[in-house]
């Protein structure tokens, strides 16, 4: 029992039900869009998150968690992870071919080769999902949670820089037919259809299908979509003590990958210019005039290429309440991906293939007591991958292997636990630890001169821990301080080891301190959350990719990151809401493990803008049978470079990007209709970017141009 006489299980269940009904925005939820009436007096509602693998109020979670409900993403026209970056502080979720680069507080993997794993974990329904799975569509979601900073104790490998948790909507015991229909520029057609059926008092099934077709953003027609995803979920609850959720999803992407454009050369002056593109329309990758000279087009003009992307992911969750306050949870998962695509690095064609097979299992036991809340777990995984990349054409000039990992297996096991003890009603302490054993084995064809074969095999042992304290200054103001560590298994360079130089790359390790407070004032109408952080990285993986070089070495480096994040919500009336987030980030390399890189020390990490600002405002106008909600939001990023050596042409200048939407909600909650526009001023912002190109000095993926559309939702 809790100290107020209510079981924590019952409290968590009621909070989860509340959160599911609320279309939350960053950090908090908003009043229910379907049921709120004019003049209703309400403050900022709570939202429940599972960042610490248990349901708890976001305002009681000692971390800077940013959370969104699925309905809020629908309202803003957000259909994938890349668009979520517009509303997350100090984050970049940007496209890189079939994958999405995920970077939180300056840390993330900026290449997608087979020997480079992500440093931010992406989890779907509690199951780790490899990097290429981050580009699956978002539909029929319950919520998304973004946890910046190390999460090594509870999430283990690949959570060095943070964690993103995506949760699907589960089946319910009520009949429901719902959907979304959208159309927009670039001949966008998007539809989602969901059917929920209760088959008995204990059994329910939920099926959803999502389809998107859109013309390409590039002049050639590249960067298009023709994607379909199908999901089936089954929920079996034979009693109040047992719940079994089983789900599966298939995703097929059959559009055209984005081509990269030339950046850093001014065609009017014939000289280097950091912010210049070759064409007035940056998304036009064709060459004209002097740049159409056959000498500059060794493979001809860029064209619209094709991709194949087949993703199967399955999972489940079994929860059994063994006793009051004691729950056993088992989460199995399977991920399979077969993907290959062709695209153009400026005027040079590129081919990339990725294949994944991943099996994961997690078993944990959680207890809630009068003074002690605890959790212990066992986690195991086996991942097999194959990755190959070829620059140029096999029957043409300048062709070479960029990556040739023929066989790559990573497997491991971990034992973890965390406990929070309530010293008093206001003061709590937390301690946790994770012991990990990982083994990596690989072989392949080296991209180095002569393409020799390479092999690699190495085991890693690591113990990470976490200690923290929380104190409630008042019932509405909580302070916290946490120290924790994290690590990622080491990897290899794609070259043979020699007596003079090993291909072994040391495992990255992190020590961190975070502290802050979460607060509510003015009768729950003002919320201010602040977190300061300091991260010290040892052996962080860095790689500066030059598309003209067949081999780009991975380096270990020391790095230091510190900063502060301030999130505020003001709801002066039931109809007005203002969200504001400001993040300052100082992310710098300090020292490299190899000689000759001293001149690059104290430079900012890739894609690590010093300042980010997120602003959003909405107001509800009430009508006789519903209300209209216009919303505007904007994001500012100061300048950043795309690699750690600050290659000319890879710098993004400071940029504001603005979005807006307007939606009519019927009071019945049965339907809504609205419109949205993103990147209103049509800013060209670089995504994955690298050195080289013709004429260069860099080539860049670009984020989406101005897009707009109209949307209708229904729920019966």
Automatic annotation (TrEMBL):
Record-annotated TonB-dependent receptor plug domain positions: 58-163
Residues annotated as signal peptide: 1-26
Bilayer topology term: Multi-pass membrane protein
GO biological process, one term: iron ion transport
Localisation per UniProt entry: Cell outer membrane
Gene3D superfamilies: TonB-dependent receptor, beta-barrel domain
InterPro entries: Beta-barrel_TonB, Beta-barrel_TonB_sf, Plug_dom, TonB-dep_rcpt-like
Location of the TonB-dependent receptor-like beta-barrel domain: 262-680
Keyword annotations from UniProtKB, A to Z: Cell outer membrane, Ion transport, Iron, Iron transport, Membrane, Signal, TonB box, Transmembrane, Transmembrane beta strand, Transport
TM helices/strands, residue ranges: none
GO cellular component labels: cell outer membrane
Matches recorded under PANTHER family: FERRICHROME IRON RECEPTOR-RELATED, TONB-DEPENDENT OUTER MEMBRANE RECEPTOR
Family: Belongs to the TonB-dependent receptor family.
Identification of the protein by name: Iron complex outermembrane recepter protein
UniProt organism field: Rhizorhabdus histidinilytica
């Amino acid at each position: 029992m809790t100290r107020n006489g209510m079981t924590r299980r019952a409290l968590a269940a009621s909070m989860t039900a509340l959160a599911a009904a609320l279309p939350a925005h960053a950090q908090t939820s908003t009043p229910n869009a379907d049921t709120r009436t004019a003049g209703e007096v309400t403050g900022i509602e709570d939202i429940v998150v599972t960042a610490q693998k248990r349901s708890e109020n976001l305002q009681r979670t000692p971390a800077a968690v940013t959370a969104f409900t699925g309905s809020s993403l629908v309202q803003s026209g957000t259909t994938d992870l890349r668009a979520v970056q517009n509303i997350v502080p100090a984050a970049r979720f940007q496209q890189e071919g079939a994958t999405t680069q995920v970077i939180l507080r300056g840390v993330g993997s900026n290449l997608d080769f087979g020997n480079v794993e992500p440093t931010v974990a992406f989890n779907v329904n509690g199951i780790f999902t490899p990097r290429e799975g981050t580009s699956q569509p978002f539909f029929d979601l319950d919520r998304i949670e973004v946890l910046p900073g190390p999460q090594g104790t509870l999430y283990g490998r690949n959570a060095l820089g943070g964690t993103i948790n995506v949760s699907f909507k589960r089946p319910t015991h009520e009949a429901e037919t719902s959907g979304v229909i959208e159309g927009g520029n670039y001949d966008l057609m998007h539809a989602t259809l969901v059917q929920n059926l209760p088959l008995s008092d204990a059994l329910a099934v939920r099926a959803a299908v999502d389809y998107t077709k859109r013309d390409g953003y590039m002049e050639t027609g590249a960067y298009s979509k023709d994607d379909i995803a199908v999901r089936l979920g089954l929920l079996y609850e034979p009693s109040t003590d047992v719940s079994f959720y089983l789900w599966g999803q298939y995703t097929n992407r059959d559009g055209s990958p984005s081509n990269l454009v030339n950046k850093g050369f001014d065609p009017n002056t014939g000289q280097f210019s950091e912010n210049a593109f070759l064409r007035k329309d940056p998304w036009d990758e064709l060459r004209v005039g002097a740049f159409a000279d056959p000498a500059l087009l060794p493979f001809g003009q860029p064209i619209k290429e094709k991709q194949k992307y087949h993703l199967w992911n399955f999972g489940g969750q079994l929860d059994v309440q063994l006793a009051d306050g004691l729950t056993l949870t088992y989460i199995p998962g399977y991920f399979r991906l077969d993907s290959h695509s062709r695209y153009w690095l400026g005027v040079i064609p590129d081919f990339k293939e990725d294949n994944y097979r991943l099996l994961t299992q997690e078993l944990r036991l959680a207890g809630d007591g009068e003074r002690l809340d605890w959790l212990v777990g066992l986690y195991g995984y086996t991942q097999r991958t194959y990755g190959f990349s070829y620059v140029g054409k096999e029957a043409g000039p300048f062709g070479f292997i960029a990556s040739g990992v023929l066989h790559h297996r990573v497997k491991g096991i971990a034992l973890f636990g965390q406990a929070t003890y309530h010293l008093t009603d206001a003061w709590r302490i937390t301690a946790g630890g994770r012991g990990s054993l990982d083994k990596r084995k690989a072989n392949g064809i080296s991209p180095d001169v002569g393409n020799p074969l390479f092999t690699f095999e190495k085991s890693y042992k690591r113990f990470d821990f976490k200690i923290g304290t929380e104190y409630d200054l008042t019932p509405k103001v909580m302070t916290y301080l946490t120290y924790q560590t994290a690590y990622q298994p080491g990897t290899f360079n794609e070259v043979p080891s020699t007596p003079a130089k090993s291909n072994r790359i040391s495992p990255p390790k992190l020590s961190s301190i975070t502290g802050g407070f979460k607060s509510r004032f003015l009768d729950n109408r003002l919320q201010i959350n602040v977190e300061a952080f300091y991260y010290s990285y040892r052996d962080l993986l860095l790689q500066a990719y030059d598309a003209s070089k067949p081999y780009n070495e991975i380096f270990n480096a020391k790095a230091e990151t510190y900063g502060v994040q301030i999130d505020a919500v003001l709801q002066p009336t039931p109809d007005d809401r203002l969200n504001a987030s400001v993040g300052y980030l100082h992310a710098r390399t300090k020292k490299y493990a190899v000689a000759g890189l001293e001149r690059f020390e104290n430079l900012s990490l890739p894609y690590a803008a010093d300042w980010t600002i997120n602003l959003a405002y909405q107001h509800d106008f009430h009508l006789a049978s519903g209300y209209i909600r216009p919303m505007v939001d904007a994001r500012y990023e100061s300048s950043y470079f795309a690699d750690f050596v600050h290659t000319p042409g890879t710098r993004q200048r400071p940029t504001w990007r603005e979005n807006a939407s307007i939606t009519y909600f019927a009071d019945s909650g049965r339907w809504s209709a609205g419109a949205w526009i993103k990147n209103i001023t049509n800013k060209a912002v670089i995504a994955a970017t690298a050195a080289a190109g013709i004429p260069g000095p860099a080539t860049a993926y670009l984020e989406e141009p101005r897009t707009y559309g109209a949307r209708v939702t229904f729920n019966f």
